[in-house]
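Response to reviewer comment R2.3. The reviewers asked that we include at least one raw input/output pair. We reproduce the pair for Fatty acyl-CoA reductase here without editing.
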Amino acid sequence: MESSKIQQFLEGKTIFITGATGFLAKILVEKILRVQPNVKKLYLLVRASDTKSAQKRFHEEVMQTELFKVLTEKIGAKNLNSLVEEKVFPVAGDISFEDFGIQNSEIKDEMFKEIDIIINSAATTRFDERYDIAMNINVLGAVNILKFAKRCEKVKIIVHVSTAYVCGEGEGVIPEKSFILGETLNKNSYLDIDVERKVIEDKLKELEAQNLTSKEVTIAMKDLGIQRATLHGWPNTYSFTKAMGEMLLGHLKENLQLAIIRPTIITSTYKEPFPGWIEGVKTVDSFIVAYGKGILNFCFGDPNTKIDAIPGDMVVNSILAAVIAHGNQYYSSQESIYHICSSGKNTLKSCDIRLFLFHYFTKNPWINKDGKIIKVGMPRLFSSMDSYQKYISTYYWPLSKVLELVNLLSCRRFDKTYKNLKRKIDMAIRLAELYKPYLLFHGSFDDANTERLRMAMKECNMDDVLSFDPRCIKWEDYFMNTHLPGAVKRIF
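Raw output as returned:
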């Protein structure tokens, strides 16, 4: 039975959600429609050229997903369509632009008058995204949210979805602490976001003058992002730009109520609307896919590293809990940071996932397109980058060079074998480089604020319908019976 309390809090509210076609936003929209169909309106920002295109994207990429099967079964397809038509309004726009580039002034004016709650889940989550793109979405997008909110007459709360890894390569217990504008992680530099924008502008002009291909420009802009992140102490462009976004939100929010949700590694749904729903390859799933398909049987990482994972539906529940707590003034503070995490309450280690993978794919081997069963061995785990690179250079690079030569001499007779080996090597190097900060992560996240939020939900009898306590997760059962089957079904 759904809680009447959450129905009461969300009834008649108008909610604006950005990043509407993303993984978390889909779960969020489904949850709201399922537990409180009497919201007044859901405005969903969809990247599209016009309203018709936005509606098309929403119906194809959101409503037609398997995620909505529970709600369809509950109220019927016809009633669901009527509900969506009455309550859900996809808005064509782009978070990178002021007022999101919304062209329809009537819709915009309605939004300014009606919006009670803003949830910003728009982001580019690629670790090595082009610096200009990451800046536009993760940094300037956050500023555009604030500018828009300040023109809304009724807005009560902004919930901004960030990442716990804005901390970089932290050690020890990492507090739920906000950033000061200009703060860096290496403490040896000052971060001037206007300077960063100028660096991007100058680099783009320089590249344009060189008449490079779009691919070459993309590579250069990705490299620039990593360089600037490293300069200021962050391991990648994603965590760097998300940190800048948080800085600007905190600095510019004035009297607006702001809650920042910092999830760790988001995995498939634990319970709602059903276990195991996932979409797209998330952080931990890159190796799962490569291992299950027989592409990689070795990996890099400290076996004792805490892999801080949290199911997607728990993240969504924490977002709604923050909306209710701050929107109804349970908390007097105007800004709160929430680590939505598991490392402090329910530890999961690299060595655990390694065992889960081996047992699962031994019992449930992947069958390739040729109908062959992919046999897996226990993944070999290297705890230092030196030993990992030495293994590749000793066992794979020489074989690759020999295969390359044999392939050329035999008129590409071994082309497929050579390409598969090269793909394996490239993937092994790329995954290790991208995920090194998380595979050797020696911190754990404080969640004192989050625990208070959980207690607030318990006090008003919403801890069942808005559950986000990681202590209930049995990791072996979750991976073996929920996450891995879900990933195989929906990602492979």
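The mean pLDDT is 90. The first helix runs from residue 4 to 10. Further pairs are available on request from the corresponding author.
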